[in-house]
Predict the structure.
Amino acid sequence: MATPAPIPRQNRPLPAKTPTPPGTAGVLEPAMSGEILELHHDKHHAAYVKGANDGLNRLVEARDKGNYATLVGLEKTFAFNLSGHVLHSIFWNNLSPDGGDRPDGELAAAIDEDFGSFDGFAGQLSAATKGATPKI
């Protein structure tokens, strides 16, 4: 079996960066603490970004050295951190001092149809997320 060629450095993805959250953290008070949002951004989200970048570097290094036996574990770790980064980036873009209420219109109707009620949806989502973090 032929050994795959390394990915040329100029074709590799750029490192991920922690986006700046829109507005200031305090704009969502009292619903969301500015201090907690700052901590969430600067520590929690930043850890996903660091993990994604470190994971990408480890994947590149393993491929460059032909160490293919480690790829599955490295890919899982990279995917976990990259998805955490992407989901947090979506989170920051969805924050609004004008939001926070239950949906209405078509979205509310779909939630009611699929989950019975908004409370049913929220309960199922909470239960599902408790076991969502893989052990890596």
User: Anything to note?
Assistant: The chain has four helices and no strands. Helices lie at 34-64, 71-94, 105-115, 118-130.
